[in-house]
Design brief:
- The complex is a heterodimer.
- By secondary structure, chain A is α+β, with helices and mostly antiparallel strands.
- Chain A folds into 3 domains: 167 residues, Aldehyde oxidase/xanthine dehydrogenase, molybdopterin binding domain (Aldehyde Oxidoreductase, domain 4), CATH 3.30.365.10; 182 residues, Aldehyde oxidase/xanthine dehydrogenase, a/b hammerhead (Aldehyde Oxidoreductase, domain 3); 230 residues, 2-Layer Sandwich (Aldehyde Oxidoreductase, domain 4).
- Chain A is built from 20 helices and 28 strands.
- Chain A has a 7-stranded mixed beta sheet with strand order 3-5-1-12-9-10-11. Chain A has a 5-stranded mixed beta sheet with strand order 7-15-14-13-8. Chain A has a 4-stranded mixed beta sheet with strand order 18-26-27-28, with helices on both faces.
- In chain A, strand 27, helix 18 and strand 28 form a beta-alpha-beta unit.
- The longest helix of chain A is centred in the C-terminal third of the chain and has 27 residues.
- The termini of chain A are far apart.
- By secondary structure, chain B is of the alpha+beta class.
- Helix content of chain B is 33%, strand content 27%.
- Chain B contains 12 helices and 14 strands.
- In chain B, the strands form 4 sheets. In chain B, strands 4-5-10-6-7 form a 5-stranded antiparallel beta sheet.
- Chains A and B meet through helix 4 and helix 20 of A and helix 12 of B.
Chain lengths: 795, 283
């Protein structure tokens, strides 16, 4: 028997492999949009409205145009001759929205004119030199007041500022029906309930604050009628589709590149007016143009998140059994509908089923225009809002009945044997097993110990509270039936000469670590070294097709496409290997990948190295019958459903009696995202998500004054969570694989954001419960807490 | 985030800086750490035509003690002050306050002279300097001028400093029984309310005290009612009653998203008590 040399390659799936992206990111060796410099490149600056609502009377660009180095000054009305209204990605009616305002401004920061100049400084000077006169209109800032007769309106044809109204309810209803159905069962449930809790709750407006602001470089080459756009986007393929349409080009004439992208959190899904404007102006001035957003612009013009007001009623029996839910939700969507604006709040109602058997539900949603920055996806996108409303209400039921909040939840869980589980809203939860997750969280946290610790602290006069939440969320967006761009993902796998592998993915990671996790998957699949694999993404000139990264879909959908393409490439490698071993009468079906070899299973001596086979594939002499040279395969993966990860978060807070300052003492998160490729990356995602969810609960809020002027437009007033504000998180997992994709992975990008917010607020309410406090609005500003301690009641 | 065009000159000496300042007139601004000025320039809230960099001047550097008097050069950074063994031993309030300013980046670049000259209503060091009865040294075309800290801070962003003068340093008597306590504005890390207390202790009794507040009002100022109540008070027990009315005595109180007037008045009393207790604990 021949011995076989070579290393034994460890399996990498499930291992804590360090992110291969990080060295370049932390050593300044990555290329972001602002690092791209093209010969002859000009720079854009936008003149933006400094009022919230008004009609543009006149724009005087003469002083700006006279500045040396200014190439072009163009108003919104003039630009509209080159660019039509922007497309949206939802089926809802929407008012026209131009990249640059043409006749009216509707929020502070909306662009009214653009300068093209030799450098960024001249461009900004010229933008400042543009004089705009407005007829100011009353600002609409309160969404409830906005719906009253007599309120100023933002858009013609949208009476009372209402953008979307939807209603569904009863038992087993159709969410697409806008008309009330027979939902008398809801009223009956509430009439018969032993306890009803009712609460008005605000899910405040947030600024996504990606570390890298937005930016775009557009280069239209008239000679070859071809446009290249580099943009800090989460989805270059969607950018290509939409920019092509706006420019009157075909997709074959546009290449979109997302180079290194410094975070998105949902705000870089939308394709913005600045991106269309850059493309149009590059064609107009016949030069590449660049625009880099500054932080002030990011606060004013990058889409905001959340801003949902909920009137929530929950009915229960005296034993804690939940018998019905009523939710009336008002979404303040800001001044316009952008790509997914109108869809996000619809997810809130759909996900408000939570992890419970809810016999009856009534859901009313109104989306309202106001003179604020448009809203769109922000990490969690609809689910944090719904789960916050629900998990606050469930906690209120527990408090009303003097029950342990964990036990109320346990009592109402969808049992493990009822999956797949159809909710009232028409979703089908793929898989779930909630009770072990709850038990593990209670155990990791030592829930009983925490309660005793709280009581002991209270006996010393300290103000301490504990809180718990249990969430389910929706990940792995698709399928195509519910995603207007298509809900599939695409991947290509090429085995190169020498046995190296290049793979492409239509997912567009901007912090998710897919270069690492996807390489782990391919290393195991082909049994080759991790270092021999490169994952390419973010360039429509390289990645043939794709959708992008949002809705925690990279692994569940993108990873599934990758493994499918790898399967095809592997099959072809085995065929070539078998052809190279004809004298040994090997058939491809007998072969496996093992430690860098393609071998007969259990017989390493009957083998070829992966590299030998790859080399043969490109010089196949003789070419095996029926085969083409080379190994480069691709796959589209269309998920049949979403995935529904879940988890339990527990926290402990202490409030300073004198100042109202809240300190988060503990946070325990037990999440179940199905099978895990890389625990280190999953934990990193959970950490970041927790920080953002805690940020919403404790610190962050976009505030406008009564004139629609933003008062939190810098980091001097907008409070971001800092590392020192956070405790050492205690994380654990349960594993309930999904049947929806071959990996069994569900997705984890947004989980931390969803569970932590209600968990922290539940703890804060528990802390102040001895003062008669029943609800606290977010964020936990010290003065708000101080007033509650001194005055009791609600905030 | 894009400033208007400006000229940049690095002064080789304080004398050169003074003459550049005269040449430049109202267009000229001094630059040391730049942590107040540059953000304002980026937002075009300040548009100086000439920046005179004095940040690296040796003449403005150093921390010395002579016969119980401590002098700090204007260009010393908050990080350097926080790390000074001399200050930690002889005036720990100064080192601790500097350590609690902003974040590491701000402390590494921001200077004591810049902080005092800019006089942000929420800046920490002005209250400490007032409580320590520090003297602020200024140099102008007519020579040196010394101003007591409590007279230097006049109103919001307004100090007794001519357009042609430079803050060269501060000096104060060594004092161990002094402490600073602040409620942070969580976004900016400036003081929503910060109180500095410097006590003269005779055993457990306070014979005299200087107490100053920042953040609550337009500028750092003494809380004379608290000082009066502390004279003869036994500490730490007397701290609460001495500081109870601290906030109510303020003429003008700031109000914003982060704290109403009522809250800031209440917090002035809380942080006065905390500062006094901490200072007494050092006795």
């Amino acid at each position: 028997m021949t011995s076989v040399d070579g290393p034994v390659l460890p399996k990498l799936i499930g291992e804590r492999v360090k992110r291969r992206e990080d060295p370049r990111l932390i050593q300044g060796q990555a290329t972001y949009v602002d690092d791209i410099k093209l010969p002859g490149m000009l720079h854009l600056a936008f003149k933006r409205s400094d009022i919230a609502h008004g009609v543009i009377k006149s724009i005087d660009t003469s002083a700006a145009a006279a500045i040396e180095g200014v190439e072009l000054v163009i108003t919104g009305a003039e630009l509209a001759e080159h660019l039509g209204p922007m497309p949206i990605g939802t089926p809802f009616p929407a008012p026209d929205h131009f990249s640059v305002a043409t006749d009216k401004v509707r929020y502070v920061g909306e662009p009214v004119a653009v300068v093209v100049a030799e450098d960024r400084y001249i461009a900004r000077d010229a933008a400042d030199a543009i004089e705009v006169e407005y007829d100011e209109l009353p600002a609409v800032v309160d969404p409830e007041a906005a719906m009253e007769a007599g309120s100023a309106t933002l858009h013609e044809g949208f009476e009372r500022n209402i953008a979307v109204e939807s209603y569904w309810g009863g038992t087993g209803v159709n969410p697409e029906t806008a008309q009330p159905e027979d939902d008398s069962a809801v009223d009956a449930a509430f009439a018969e309930a032993d306890v009803v809790v009712s609460q008005r709750m605000m899910n405040q407006r947030l600024a996504p604050n990606a570390m890298e602001p937005r930016g775009v470089v557009a280069h239209y080459e008239p000679g070859r009628e071809y446009l290249t756009v580099w943009s800090a986007t989460q989805n270059p393929h969607i950018l290509r589709t939409l920019v092509a349409a706006m420019m009157g080009l075909g997709e074959h004439q546009v290449r979109a590149v997302a180079p290194e992208v410094g975070g998105g959190f949902g705000c870089k899904i939308n394709i913005y007016g600045e991106e269309y404007t850059a493309a149009a102006l590059s064609r107009l001035v016949k030069a590449p143009v660049k625009w880099i957003e500054d932080r002030t612009e990011a606060f004013l013009t990058t889409t905001h998140g959340r801003d949902l007001l909920g009137y929530i009623d929950l009915a229960a029996k005296s034993d804690g059994t939940i018998t019905g839910l009523k939710a009336r939700i008002i979404a303040d969507i800001g001044a316009y509908e952008v790509l997914l604006t109108a869809m996000i709040p619809t997810l809130t109602g759909l996900m408000m089923n939570g992890v419970y058997r809810l016999p009856v539900v009534r859901h009313e949603l109104t989306e309202v225009f106001t003179n604020k920055t448009p809203t769109d996806a922000y990490r969690g996108a609809g689910r944090p809002e719904g789960l916050y409303f629900l998990e606050r209400a469930v906690d209120m039921v527990a408090r009303e009945l003097d029950m342990d909040p964990a036990e109320v939840r346990r009592k109402n869980f969808v049992p493990a044997d009822e999956f797949p589980f159809a909710t009232q809203g028409g979703l089908v939860y793929d898989s779930g097993n909630y009770e072990p997750c709850l038990d593990k969280a209670l155990e990791v946290a030592d829930w009983q110990g925490m309660l005793a610790e709280r009581d002991a602290a209270r006996a010393e006069g300290r103000i301490v509270g504990v809180g718990l939440s249990f969430y389910v969320e929706v990940c792995g967006l698709g399928p195509s039936a519910v995603v207007p761009t298509g809900g599939w993902e695409h991947s290509g796998v090429t085995v190169e000469r020498g046995g190296k592998v290049t793979a492409t993915t239509g997912a567009s990671p901007h912090g998710q670590g897919n270069e690492t996790t996807f390489a782990q998957m391919l290393a195991d699949h082909f049994s080759i070294p991790f270092e021999d694999i490169t994952i390419l993404h973010g360039d429509t000139g390289v990645v043939k097709q794709g959708i992008g990264t949002f809705g925690s879909r990279s692994q569940a959908v993108g990873g599934a496409a990758l493994i499918s393409a790898a399967g095809k490439a592997g099959d072809k490698m085995k065929q070539f290997a078998a052809a190279m071993m004809t004298d040994q009468e090997v058939s491809p079906e007998d072969l496996v990948f093992e430690d860098g070899r393609i071998q007969v299973e259990g017989a390493p001596e009957v083998s070829k190295t992966f590299a030998e086979v790859a080399d043969f594939a490109y010089v196949p002499v003789p070419l095996p019958a029926g085969m083409e040279p080379g190994v480069s395969e691709e796959s589209f993966f269309e998920p049949e459903n979403n995935t529904y990860p879940f988890g339990c978060h527990i926290s402990m807070v202490e409030v300073d009696r004198e100042t109202g300052e809240t300190k988060l003492l503990k946070l325990i998160a037990v999440d179940d995202c199905g099978n895990v490729i890389n625990p280190l990356i999953v934990e990193g995602q959970v950490h970041g998500g927790l920080a953002q969810g805690i940020g919403q609960a404790m610190f962050e809020e976009v505030v406008y004054d009564e004139d629609g002027q933003p008062v939190t437009a810098s980091f001097m007033d907008y409070v971001m969570p800092r590392a020192a504000d956070l405790p050492v998180f205690e994380l654990d997992r349960t594993v309930t694989p999904t049947p929806i994709n071959p990996l069994g992975a569900k997705g984890v990008g947004e989980a931390g954001t969803i569970g932590s917010t209600p968990c922290v607020i539940n703890a804060a309410v528990d802390a102040l419960a001895p003062f008669g406090v029943t609800h606290i609005e977010m964020p936990l500003r010290p003065e708000r807490m101080w007033r509650l301690i001194n005055e009791g009641g609600q905030s | 985030m894009i400033p208007t065009a400006f000229e940049y000159r690095r002064a080789g000496s304080v004398a050169e800086a003074l003459s550049l300042l005269q040449e430049g007139g109202p267009e000229a601004k001094l630059l040391a750490g730049g942590h107040s000025l540059i953000p304002m320039m980026k937002q075009r809230l300040a548009e100086p035509g000439l920046l005179i960099d004095i940040g690296g001047l040796d003449e403005l550097r150093g921390i010395q003690e002579t016969d119980g008097e401590i002098a700090i050069g204007a260009a010393m950074t908050h990080a350097e002050i926080a790390a000074s063994d001399l200050l930690r031993e002889q005036a720990p309030i100064v080192a601790e306050t500097a350590a609690a300013i902003g974040d590491a980046q701000v402390r590494s670049r921001g200077t004591i002279g810049g902080s005092l000259a800019h006089a942000d209503p929420g800046a920490d060091l002005p209250a400490v300097m007032v409580a320590l009865d520090a003297t602020i040294a200024l140099l102008g075309p007519n020579g040196e001028r010394k101003v007591q800290a409590e007279d230097f801070f006049q109103d919001i962003l307004t100090v007794d400093l001519g357009e042609d003068e430079i803050v060269t340093g501060v000096c104060f008597q060594a004092c161990r029984s002094a402490a600073y306590a602040k409620l942070e504005q969580r976004a900016s890390k400036f003081a929503l309310v910060g109180v500095a207390a410097a006590l003269t202790l005779d055993g457990g009794t306070c014979s005299s005290a200087r107490v100053a507040v920042t953040g609550a009002s337009s500028h750092a100022q003494r809380l004379s009612g608290v000082e009066g109540a502390l004279a003869g008070a036994s500490l730490p027990d007397g701290a609460a009653s001495a500081s109870a009315g601290a906030g109510d005595a303020l003429d003008f109180v700031n109000e914003d998203l982060h704290g109403s007037e009522e809250y800031r008045r209440a917090m002035t009393a809380v942080f006065a008590r905390r500062a006094i207790e901490a200072a007494a604990g050092r006795g």
